[in-house]
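seq/struct pair 1
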Amino acid sequence: AYEIKECDWSSDVCSSDLPVVRKVLDLAVYVDVSDDVRFIRRLRRDVSERGRTVESVITQYLSSVKSMHDTYVAPQKFVADIIVSWMDHNDRAVDMLAGMVTGWQTESKS
């Protein structure tokens, strides 16, 4: 299980493994969320669930989170099969993806 306190953020494994991971996926979905929404979600979560200060969340976001997103996550949008625009909800996209997964599960059982 993932534990935030035990995560080694200095590892560079993710960047080198992305092409390998993409090759084994049936479908690549990129959920496109604005910077503001991502930051606000992180701020709320880290303050309420992790006991962090607002200032520490802002400092971490500006010093590493934003640049890591721009370097590693954002470019995946250009290799995704489907891009889902997301603010609060996108029920149509969720329903479509759920239908695809259900269809794959049905196919694999037969």
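seq/struct pair 2
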Amino acid sequence: AVLAKSAQLVGAALLFVVAPIVFGTRVETTILWTGAGAAAVAWGLWRRFTVLRYLGFILFFAVLGKVFLFDISGLALPLRIIGLIIVAISLLAVSYGYAQYRRRVVAQQP
């Protein structure tokens, strides 16, 4: 069980490292990291793998920092708005899913 969880973690880490190399532009990297963060959180919730779940949240915070520090400055206004809306929707979706998961776990505890 520990070996399988470690393999999952290594696979997720490789995706995060390879993504900027394969997808060199800023917007595509942001989109990929947002999807990878959502996948890490979802997979961590589904498999009850806490470390992967927290890594997904850390990746979301990294994406927010990247968007506000680097991506927004180089985009035209309509694309800025669309980009921020996409990031906001993904954050809301992950937050909602995590809240539902926590509510279910708390309800199952005696």
